[in-house]
Design goal:
GO terms for molecular function: DNA binding; sigma factor activity. Belongs to the sigma-70 factor family. ECF subfamily. By secondary structure, this protein is mostly helical. It has 2 domains: 3-97, Rna Polymerase Sigma Factor, Chain: A (Orthogonal Bundle); 106-153, no CATH class. The chain is built from 8 helices and no strands. The radius of gyration is 23 Å and the shape is elongated. It starts with a helix and ends with a helix.
Amino acid sequence: MTSDRVSAALLASADETLVARCVAGDTAAFAVLVRRHSPLLRVLITRIVGSATEADDVVQDSFVIAWREMANLRDGSAVRAWLVRICTRQAYALLRKRPADLELAVSEAAPATAGQPETQAVRNAQLRALGRVAKSCSAGAGRSLKRVARCHHR
């Protein structure tokens, strides 16, 4: 068999077969898994961490973990779900390591304008509400923004 046929055969292989080959040390099979699942994982992790660059790092680190732990995967056909779980855990670990944003006092965020106290009061109330929503977003990073907005809009 030529290397082109081997590559074509690997590309057409089921995940379960590729996992078995990875456990046996086949790096070409692992490369096929990486190529097959990276796009989905990259999109998912970009949505979680908010940065394509950080998502690439998380996905790459996750594949390193997957290579080391491949023998522990019980069902090779569930490799996609397993990779998603590894990536999301790594993404949330990254989010926990990020420093919390510094809070600005309302007086610093919105300077008072003479002659318009009603407008200033409304603006200050909006900034306080926005600050509460931002805090809850960072505390519950897994929740969607729509869900957070619904919780705070009630």
